[in-house]
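INFO  loader      accepted 1 record
INFO  loader      residues=153
INFO  predictor   begin
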Amino acid sequence: MRNHDIFIKPLDKEEEIEICAGLMAFADPWKTLRIPLSQIKDTLRDDFYESYVAYVGEQIAGVAIIQMKGVCTGYLKSIAVKKEYRRQHIGSLLMDHIEERIFSVHKNVFLFVSSFNENAKRFYRRRGYEVIGIVEDYVLPGYDEILMRKRKN
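INFO  predictor   done
INFO  writer      dumping tokens
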């Protein structure tokens, strides 16, 4: 997927894993939920998931992780955009890419968004996601995760 000097490709290099894990670990929701850097790296290396990295020119701007196997297929596990690239449509381009990938096989895209993550909740609602449930105290006590779904048109 290309858009001017922005492109998205499968994450496949150790250097990309290091950069992407770093951008996630020190940002919300991972920071608030105390998800360790080592766990994020393990997830990015795990063949169970598909990970995609967004570049602006030669710079990594964002990452998305989806689950296309197992019980919860069509699940967006994580998406992150570097602070300096936010509000430049990188998140939207990543979402377009993963929705296209998931909808090529499944009728629904599922995701969790942390209850405290107001910007993400707005972003997903604008993209047509609907709340289908709330899981209380899911990752840490005191923090709920909101389960959202978008159906294929």
